[in-house]
Amino acid sequence: MSEAIALHPPASRKEPGRLWIVPPAALLALLFFYPLALIVRQAFLDDGGVANAGEIINVLHSRFFLNALMNTVTISVAATAGCLIVGLLLALILAFVPFPGSGFIARLIDTFIALPTFLVTLAFTFLYGSAGMLNSGLMEVFSLPLPPVDFLYSTWGVVLAEVTVYTPFILRPLLAAFSLVDRAQIEAASVLGARPLRIVRQIILPAAVPALIAGGSLCLLLTVNEFGIVLFIGAKGVITLPLLIYGKAIQESAYQVACIIATVNIALSLGLFGLYRFAASRLGA
Amino acid sequence: MLVWSRSGRLLIWLFFALIFGVLFLAPLAVILLSSLADQWNGVLPNGLTTEHYTDVARGAAWNSVKASFITGFLASALALVSGTWAALSLRLQGQSLKRLLGLLFFIPSAVPSVSVGLGLLVAFSHPPLLLNGTIAIVMIAHFVLISAFTFGNVSAGLARLSPDFEQVASSLGARPAYRLWHVTLPLLAPYLVAAFGLSFALSMGELGATVMVYPPGWVTLPVSIFSLTDRGDIFAGAALTMILVAATLILLLGLERITARATGS
Asked: Could you tell me the pTM of the whole model?
């Protein structure tokens, strides 16, 4: 390296290679950051283009906004908690109590990452909807007049659908972390009489913490941004921020209101993205 | 092995089967079943039929299959070029600029897709950049949303690449362009194929931004599925969803096989 420095003059500012970054960066700036900035600008202008910052206060205090914000946070936190629990249980079994074909099952769950999220909601309508399999079955067996199971068109329906869709995002880093756990350590502990629960608590869980934090913050981000699941459930009472933006912009053509809500939503998402990056880099997951 | 007793293991596997069955297997199975259902009034369909598929193949829904494929292909190809370009040229930057730009290239994946669509509507609804109502705005929305994934995949590939090959090529006198084309890109190929496959799959399932910007003549699969189910035609919606799932899986498996053959593993 010192030889190279001796042979060449110190790299000047006009080094040509550095400019290669300009085309993709300019493309991203034009197609993503410029529209993003315009959303923030439009939040201060009414739909005629006149400055109207007062509308921001109105929207932020409005019932529909606060409701949507509340729903978004509740659903996101509940779904992430569910993903962490289900993901941890599945990963523990797949990694430490494997069965014939468990590798295939792990890959099958992994492909859920590439599938559209609304698929699960559509399936849930057939399974748990008012005329779905579960309700028809229960009505037939107990001869009930009305469908007894009615959680699908509520917050919990959305949460269950999101747990299905986002658990693979927890499972993937967890399985990677578990593959590094020393199997001999576990065997030694169990030969010495440690019960499985104690081994999980004292050996396996500490190894899983980085993956759980990184995967959990990614889940928080993705569930805050989730749109398809909520749209497909179509429950009147379950409106989240992305759904509210869609409703205001497309159905009501109220662009300023949509942009105000979008600005809040983007700020929330970027905050969670920062948390995820921090967790992932700090913990090396 | 964490659990040694046979009964304990069976119990745990049963538990696993229950969670897996309820959360992952049942949704896929029920979509398949409903896409073939004749009528469904009880616990199980009254009869099976392929009518929904033939309806879908004949009707306007087929146009949405085409729209999704073309959008997915073009947006992924553009994202692959720009993502690879960005990842490669980022290596030439200084440490702090590299970190900052790397973060900026990831941000589109963190922003809600509906907001990406809204931003495009706000930005490109007036001349001179009037794209609202064109097919191009759908492509741009998809490109923006998947570009971060392509960039991430290619960057991860570059990080794993051993620098030895490139250094040997340079020391043997290969010019940068030759080295890029004959050494770096072939070594990256598996990651490029994987990135292309993932972004194609994501584009095929994209709903949030598309529903904001799509013009009447360019209805993608997810939008078409939504309007079918919203109208109450859930069986046709299920058939179209199965087509989407099958296309995605074939795409991913096919690309995986190509990659496996190329790397000889």
From this structure: 0.88
